[in-house]
């Protein structure tokens, strides 16, 4: 954790109905107290308005899990940046490994989405990068993550890049209970920062929030959050329970 304000964001994935989201939000708002950490919930589209409303004035952020890069058009099933702006969300995940794996997200579409969000809204992109198990076993994890960074951030100005959140999520650690060791996570987050410095300059890399994600829970949050280069986390499973999620924020 450096000089940046860390962000701990709960990624609900495809969990919780509106009723469940409302119950969570009320309880979490009660539990939540100001810390030096920013907190946010990243929820399915249909639950976003419930969260925006329930969290109003609390300082708790709200985010979407995906967005399209066009304003409107014949794109059945998609949601655009203007639509998210209207809801008043603060963050949007781009390029989560599940979208890359199951829904055809590529570095090119990630790049279009990141640019669209940064240029036409105040919504902060949380861009996910990370290698799969075979890539780590082959020792090519750095090449993979650098390619995702270079292509995903292609064409951004330093000013734009400085607003980003990057989530390093080794795919083999997502939902598996298998966390990267704090050293592995720290090492990759440091390399990401160095690469951003090479691409956009030192001032920019000092501003970028770099999170770790993958099986973060109350039991391992302290070690992870205490690493110098890690500015927070993207929490899946453990963010579905308000008490557990608050415990992580209070690490
Ligand atoms: P997990 O998911 O915490 O359940 O491993 C993390 C993520 O996919 O963002």
Which strand order does the major sheet show?
1-2-3-4-5-6-7-8
> Helices and strands, in N-to-C order?
EHEHEHEHHEHHHEHHEHEH
Evaluate the radius of gyration. 17 Å
Strand content: 5-15%
Helicity, in percent? 40-55%
Describe this structure in words.
- This protein is an alpha/beta fold and 251 residues long.
- The protein is built from 12 helices and 8 strands.
- Strands 1-2-3-4-5-6-7-8 form an 8-stranded parallel barrel, surrounded by 5 helices.
- The longest helix has 19 residues, at 182-200.
- The model has no long low-confidence stretch (mean pLDDT 96).
- 2-phosphoglycolic acid is lined by residues 11, 169, 174-175, 213-216, 234-237.
What's the SSE blueprint?
Blueprint lengths: L6 E5 L6 H14 L6 E5 L5 H8 L5 E4 L16 H7 L3 E4 L2 H6 L4 H14 L3 E6 L3 H5 L3 H12 L5 H4 L3 E4 L13 H19 L1 H6 L1 E5 L4 H8 L6 E4 L6 H8 L2
Parallel strand pairs: 1-2, 1-8, 2-3, 3-4, 4-5, 5-6, 6-7, 7-8
Helix pairs in contact: 1-2, 5-7, 7-9, 11-12
